[in-house]
């Protein structure tokens, strides 16, 4: 049987099978991949900064990258928390996530 159809009608997949078209799980994986890419970029920026400007610049670049990546993880966690929901609920989750992200950034930088 079609796994997507089974998931659509609320039937769990058979043991050992995974529903690959789960938008919530896919969104969470995308957020994790994006944060991992940000962390990798921050590590490269820290390494380059360390070579060009020394240790304090490297630490600052790494700290900034970690703060931004963590903020985006918070945003993604809140955005995908409601699961599949009406657009108004998703919009509220998006605004809540954005607010929490900026609160985190302000507190972390302060």
Backbone structural class: mainly alpha
Helix and strand element order: HHHH
In total, the number of strands is: 0
- Coarse morphology: elongated
Strand content: under 5%
Integer-rounded radius of gyration? 19 Å
pLDDT < 50 stretches? none
Helix content: over 70%
Distance N to C terminus: 55 Å
Total helices: the number is 4
- Sketch the major β-sheet: none
Mean pLDDT: 84
Describe the structure.
It is built from 4 helices and no strands. With 110 residues, it is mainly α. Helix 3 packs antiparallel against helix 4. It is elongated. The mean pLDDT is 84.
Would you kindly provide a brief summary of this structure?
By secondary structure, the protein is mainly α. 77% of the residues lie in helices and 0% in strands. It contains four helices and no strands.
Question: What descriptors fit this protein?
Answer:
110 residues, mainly alpha, 77% helix, 0% strand
Layout of helices and strands, plus pairs?
Blueprint: H1 3-8, H2 23-53, H3 55-79, H4 87-109
Helix pairs in contact: 2-3, 3-4
């Amino acid at each position: 049987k079609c796994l997507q159809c089974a998931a659509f009608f609320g039937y769990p997949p058979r043991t050992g099978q995974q529903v690959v078209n789960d938008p919530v799980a896919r969104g969470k994986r995308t957020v994790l991949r994006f944060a991992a890419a940000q962390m990798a970029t921050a590590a490269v920026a820290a390494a380059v900064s360390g070579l060009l400007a020394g240790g304090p610049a490297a630490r600052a670049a790494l700290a900034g990258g970690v703060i931004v990546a963590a903020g985006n993880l918070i945003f993604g966690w809140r955005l995908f928390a409601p699961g599949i929901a009406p657009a108004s609920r998703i919009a509220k989750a998006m605004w809540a996530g954005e607010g929490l992200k900026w609160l985190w950034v302000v507190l972390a930088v302060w």
